[in-house]
């Protein structure tokens, strides 16, 4: 299964034993030991983990040191509570899945890379605690140069769920969108060159035909600027509430609009 692998970005790619697509099975180290694997071919549901701790060949690529502080909040048992603040559930519905728990006045929102691996955390103050500190605090914990943007990917493996990559501002919007379409939260309205490159690469690897920029209503001009840097991206103007604040009916209508970008 792991024979004749190609190494890129510290991960390994080989032929998928289920669909037969060449270099589409991606293999990487799992946090709990062993390795995870996932087929990147649309329509193939092959994914899982192995218990083996023997990697099929060492990667020659060494992550560049950045001096970021290691900060996994789950290890701080005295402060971290795994319950999602009820305020998030009431306001954001499915978007509340972005939150893993709370620490003091803040909700803890894990930041994921485009392989579904954690790359850090965002602390976001709950509305009832606004004014007691900064609105949000970012805590990256990977000691490697990665853009701090968070990805949410559908569990479904059909083309319907993978025809448009949606770029949004915040994790609540991305988590709600990620049930239906792949989404990435910029954690703000700006995106680095590395962030743009990551979006373009994920689009190519996952074979996603369309990209939609869906920022909040006060950032339509920024949507246009970002779209110019991503080939084929379409800015979607927002004039009322943000995606995370839409009713379930409006959210589904937006999803259908985005799925129809290529006429599908």
Helix and strand layout, with pairings?
Blueprint: E1 6-8, E2 11-14, E3 25-29, E4 35-39, E5 47-50, E6 80-81, H1 86-92, E7 101-103, E8 106-112, E9 118-125, E10 136-140, E11 150-152, E12 164-168, H2 171-177, E13 183-185, H3 193-205, E14 210-213, H4 220-228, E15 233-235, H5 248-259
Parallel strand pairs: 12-13, 12-14, 14-15
Antiparallel strand pairs: 1-2, 2-3, 3-4, 4-5, 6-7, 7-8, 8-9, 9-10, 11-13
Oligomer description: single chain
Radius of gyration: 19 Å
Structurally, how many domains make up the residues?
3
CATH architecture group name of the largest domain: 3-Layer(aba) Sandwich
Number of strands: 15
What distance separates the N and C termini? 35 Å
Q: Would you give the CATH topology of the largest domain?
A: Dna Topoisomerase Vi A Subunit, Chain: A, domain 2
Arithmetic mean pLDDT: 78
Description:
With 264 residues, the protein is an alpha+beta fold. The protein folds into three domains: 6-50, no CATH class; 73-140; 150-259, Dna Topoisomerase Vi A Subunit, Chain: A, domain 2 (3-Layer(aba) Sandwich). Helices cover 18% and strands 24% of the residues. The chain contains five helices and 15 strands. The two termini are 35 Å apart.
Give a summary of the structure in a few sentences.
This protein has 264 residues and is of the alpha+beta class. It is 18% helix and 24% strand. It contains 5 helices and 15 strands.
Short descriptors:
5-stranded antiparallel beta sheet; 264 residues; alpha+beta; 3 domains; globular; Dna Topoisomerase Vi A Subunit, Chain: A, domain 2; 5 helices; disordered N terminus
